[in-house]
Amino acid sequence: MWIEEISLKNYRNYQEEKAEFSPGLNIFVGQNAQGKTNFLEAIYFLSLTRSHRTRFDRELITFTKKDLRVSGLLHRLNSKLPLEIALSEKGRTTKVNHLKQAKLSDYIGTMTVVLFAPEDLQLVKGSPSLRRKFLDIDLGQIKPTYLSDLSHYNYVLKQRNAYLKQVDKVDKDFLKVLDSQLADYGSRVIRHRHDFILDLSKEASKYHQLISDQKEELTITYLSSILYKDVKEIQDNFLEQLEKNHQRDSYKKNTSIGPHRDDLTFFINGIEASFGSQGQHRSLVLSLKLAEIELIKTVTGDYPILLLDDVMSELDNHRQTKLLEIIKENVQTFITTTSLDHLQHLPQNLNIFKIKNGSLSQ
Question: Is 117 among the annotated ligand-binding positions?
Fold first, then answer.
């Protein structure tokens, strides 16, 4: 999978811009605050219909403008697909092959991406919400049913929490109805995540051994707030534990257990990775990203597009070399950087773009 061209209209500091890309490596070079990350973000946005930097769509639209459009031509499994996303005061419109998509879950997964940004280095020591977001983005791209189950779960969770906040005395029968729905969708979300982490841990371990020259072993554990030994037990256990927490939830006015409370733990040679060095954290996150690429390829039959947002300077020559060796020509890659000086062993098949004041030149 690779994107041949992309057009931006009123996106961040780009009023009107179009670029054609190499199926191999593409590098955006420019000083800070010129628009390098904005262009990379637009590619991410075209894939996932959202930004990785803000939750507010209005921030994506050029100042003084009321709408934006991002469109591109995607090569996927020997076919070409035009993609388009438009934002306006009326809302969001997504199109695949010029046809409007009724639901976001129908659109997401058409163009898959793996992003490696500086904030990803916080995956190991940052808050659990960062790791849940990592899970949601990856799983959402390769498993549309996950997005649907997660959306239903979040809807019921919002209902349950709103009810707990509104009433002084809880109607236990009504709460049990909400519990049943929450356990149904929540158990599905946990099963999706459980299976995904098994595959991710296995794949990431291979890459981590390669990057660490066989000196370190990486394992990943899914920490669920629902206690279970077998995935078949999750729904019943979820219901049982919700009932046990009725008094606590009524007092605190929120839901104490469920996938919205879950987390991941990383281990290097059996020791929690949070105690490791910065170099180990970089190797771990790099291993995760490479594992994501391989899992997406396994599930979809096509490699995703790799976005490296100002992270090459964070990687030493050894890690840079391993990364570029592994992706080779199979994965279309976009890199943002302020300078080419620190980039080593670049392939021949590449395009270099200079970005200045929201203008791009090859």
Answer: no
pLDDT digits (tens, 9 = 90+) for 108-122: 999 999 999 888 989
CATH code for the structural domain at 1-112+303-362: 3.40.50.300
- Does the annotation flag 202 for ligand binding? no
Q: Is 154 annotated as a binding residue?
A: no
Question: Contact 254/320 with Cβ under 8 angstroms?
Answer: no
Instruction: Report the distance separating Cα 150 and Cα 259, nearest Å.
Output: 9
Radius of gyration of the chain (CA): 22
- Sequence-distant (6+) residues with CB within 8 A of 347 are 24, 25, 324, 328, 329
Intra-chain end-to-end CA distance of the chain, in Å? 22
Residue 115 φ/ψ, nearest 5 degrees:
-105, 135
Residue 35 labeled ligand binder: yes
**Interaxial angle between packed helices 317-327 and 278-300, expressed in degrees from 0 to 180 and rounded to the nearest 10:** 0
Residue 51 has a CB neighbour count (10 Å cut-off) of 17
Query: What pLDDT is stored for residue 342 in this prediction?
Result: 74
pLDDT of 284-340, one tens digit each?
999 999 999 999 999 999 999 999 998 887 888 888 888 877 776 689 999 999 888
Domain boundaries, the chain: 1-112+303-362, 123-301
Q: Is 34 annotated as a binding residue?
A: yes
Query: Is 344 marked within a binding site?
Result: no
Q: In what order do the strands lie in the sheet with 25-29?
A: 113-116, 305-309, 333-337, 25-29, 350-356, 359-361
Is 26 annotated to bind a ligand? Reply is no
Q: Which CATH class is domain 123-301?
A: mainly alpha
User: Which position has the token pair 């949601």?
Assistant: 136
Tokens at 113, concatenated: 């991406």
- Residues in the chain, how many? 362
Task: Tell me if 56 sits within 8 A of 32, measured CB to CB.
Answer: no
